[in-house]
Design goal:
Glyco_hydro_5, EC 3.2.1.58, alpha/beta, 408 residues, TIM Barrel, signal, globular, cell membrane
């Protein structure tokens, strides 16, 4: 009898341990390890610059963005073409490889047009993406990957002349009550999907808008005083209506203070429950760091993304970064140099040292094809692995202690 009780208790403890480790996605963050992930860029928001051949294969080679391409091809032909793209750009093989490389998360950029009833008759975006999003989330769930759904392209466009908005415009149209409302409805819809469809079970966070660039002080004020708090409240209201337990709720992600468009916590004064912050760290666009190998290494070894203006933005994830320097053709950074792989391997490791001081990172992006007419691994995690720059696990890069020669 005593032995039976002991066995039952042992089995119960094992079950409890397994349950405690399962990625039930109650906005879970991998607490024992940092977020180590990749963006699935180019899947649902196609950016021509980083996938020229793929863009041409869709039939869009002559056009700048999704709006232009859909308008030119016609809705029916465009829908069919984009479905072929959605079904081939990220496959089960990609998700399996991502998990095999010691990564534990993916960030999925999407456009507001995924919710098709938000699209006006005079707007031009592909239709039919939802089934493909659900399938990607299911594959990521089955692989045990944490998922961030990122509203990468907001209604009206949140920045000017950017392919990542789906429609390159000279004046962003996002910053008004009409387009805010469309974004809120998208976020509510996605929240409901997350909590009612098991294929989305590993979605732990929703980012309410990617890289907003208001053009006036009034737009900037509305972003932090109106959009962020209302987006947060609308998501929480859906969770209230579904009786979602507090610990099962989504993290709600906003761009961090260092992004430069205001303090995302301004409305609250401090971080609201299960808030999450997003830092985009591209030395490619940082004129403050001299474009030399030594300066890049020093910067990454001694920087801390979670300090300064970001000191109170916790938890924080570096949601986008790459291995691209400011001057990609500078002789110091030439990818054809005999010592190029060694430098980029060390710089990758140095950046990990920086970003893992916070909650972790998402590399931009998982895969690319021809950029500026060449194979350039610096924007693609998969390509960097193939080139021997990124090892088979981020832990191996951390173990390199690449910052030791720089005293860090």
């Amino acid at each position: 009898m005593a032995r039976s009780v002991f066995l039952c208790l042992t089995l119960l403890l094992i079950c409890l341990q397994l349950l405690s480790k399962s990625p039930v996605a109650e906005a879970w963050l991998p607490y024992q390890n940092p977020i180590r992930g990749v963006n699935l860029g180019g899947l649902f928001v196609v950016e021509k610059w980083m996938m020229v051949d793929q863009w041409a294969s869709i039939g869009c080679g002559a056009y700048n963005d999704e709006w232009e391409c859909v308008q030119a091809l016609g809705q029916t032909a465009a829908d069919a073409a984009f479905k072929r793209h959605w079904g081939s750009w990220i496959t089960q093989a990609d998700i399996t490889q991502i998990a095999s490389l010691g990564l534990n998360a993916v960030r999925i950029p999407v456009g507001f047009w995924m919710k098709e009833d938000l699209v006006r008759s005079d707007e031009h975006f592909p239709r039919g993406g939802l089934a493909y999003l659900e399938n990607v989330c299911k594959m990521a769930r089955d692989a045990g990957l944490y998922i961030i759904i990122d509203l990468h392209a907001g209604p009206g466009g949140q920045d000017k002349n950017q392919q990542f908005t789906g429609h390159s415009v000279s004046t962003p149209g996002f910053f008004n009550s009409y387009n805010y409302e469309r974004a809120y409805q998208f976020l509510e819809w996605m929240t409901r999907l997350r909590h009612t469809n098991n294929n989305y079970a590993n979605v732990g966070a929703i980012e309410v808008i990617n890289e907003p660039r208001p053009q006036t002080s009034a737009e900037k004020a509305s972003l932090v005083n109106d959009y962020y708090p209302t987006a947060y409240n609308r998501i929480r209201a859906v969770e209230d209506s579904l009786n979602i337990a507090q610990n099962d709720r989504l993290h709600i992600q906003m761009m961090d203070t260092r992004w430069g468009e205001g303090n995302p916590k301004q409305h609250w004064g401090s971080s609201p429950y299960f808030a999450l912050y997003d830092d985009h760290k591209y030395l490619h666009w940082d004129n403050g760091v001299p474009a030399t190998r030594r300066d890049y290494m020093y910067h990454s070894c001694y920087d801390d993304v979670g300090t300064g203006s970001n000191s109170n933005d916790k938890p924080l994830i570096v949601g986008e970064w790459s291995l691209s320097p400011r001057d990609e053709d500078n002789s110091e950074f030439d990818i054809n140099r005999s010592d190029a792989v060694e430098f980029y391997k060390n710089w990758f490791a140095a950046q990990l040292k920086d970003y893992e001081k916070s909650r972790g990172w998402m590399f931009w992006t998982w895969k690319v094809n021809w950029i500026n007419g060449r194979f350039d691994f610096r924007w693609g995690y998969q390509q960097s692995v193939q080139a021997g720059v990124i090892p088979s696990s981020p832990s191996l890069a951390v173990a390199m202690n690449a910052c030791a020669p720089y005293g860090a």
